[in-house]
Amino acid sequence: MSNTDLSAWAVGLPVTAATSLALFTVFFAIGARTKRHRVVDVAWGLAFTAVALVGFALSSGHGDTGRRVLALALTAVWGLRLAAHIGSRSRGKPEDPRYEKLLSKAPGSALWYAFTHVYLLQAALVWFISLPVQVAQYGRGTLGPLAIVAIVLWLIGFVFEAVGDWQLTRFKADPAHRGKLMKTGLWRYTRHPNYFGDACVWWGLFLLAADQWAGLCTIASPIVMTLLLTAGSGMRLTDRHMADTRPEYAEYMRRTSGFIPLPPRHARS
C-alpha cells in the first residue's frame, strides 16, 4: 500500500477548487454574453483537465513522477476529447432545452440562478469527482499491478465513449437517417455507451489512487459520477426526453440495456 503526502495534498485542495471555480466563472461570462448557457457543457471536460494540470504542477516533488504523469494524461485525454466533441456538436445551435426549462423557472435573477445552479454546482462537482486524480498525483509509491487494471478499465471506458459518440455523429450526418433512431453499433447493446464509458473512465482513475489509503477514501467520487450519469442529468433525463419526443423509443428501451452493454433482449430470450 503506497502512502500519500497528505499535508502537501491538503495545501493544494483550495488551489484546485479555485481553478475549477475560475474556469466556470469565465464560461459563465461567455454564456451570459451569448445567452447560450450550453457552453457550460464544454467547460465540464476542460475543468477536469485544468484541475489535473494544476494538481500536477503542485505535486511536483511530492508524488511519484510516473503516477503524476499518468493521472494527468488519462484525465486530459478524456477531458479534452469530450470538450472538443461537445463544442463541435453544439456549434451554431440554439440554447439547450434543458437550460431553457431550468432558467424559465428561476426565481429572481435568471443570470444569478444560472451561475449558482449550473456553473457553481458543476465547479463543485468537478473538484469533488476529481479527488482521486488529485490524490494519485501525491502518491509516493511507484505504480503497481492495480495501475494496469486502472488503465484497462479507463481504456474500455474511453473506447465506449469515443466510439459511441463517433457512431452517433456519423449516423446523424447521413441524410438517409433523418428522423430515425440510432440502434446499431455500440448503441445496439446499450442506450448510452457514452455514459457507460464515462463511468468506466472515472472508476479507472479511482483505481489509480486506490493503492493508497487516502485514495480509497475518495470512493464517493466515482460513485457520484456514476449516479449523475444514471440517475441525475444523464441517462434518466435523456430517456425521458427521447420517450416524450420519439414514439419508437419505448420499444428501443424495452429491448436495449440502459447502461451496462448487454445483448438485445430479444436475442437473449
UniProtKB/TrEMBL annotation:
GO terms for cellular component: membrane. InterPro entries: UstE-like (IPR010721). Coiled coil: none annotated. The keyword Membrane applies. The chain crosses the membrane at residues 6-30, 42-63, 109-130, 142-163, 219-237. Keywords: Membrane, Transmembrane, Transmembrane helix. PANTHER family: 3-OXO-5-ALPHA-STEROID 4-DEHYDROGENASE, STEROID 5-ALPHA REDUCTASE C-TERMINAL DOMAIN-CONTAINING PROTEIN. This is DUF1295 domain-containing protein.
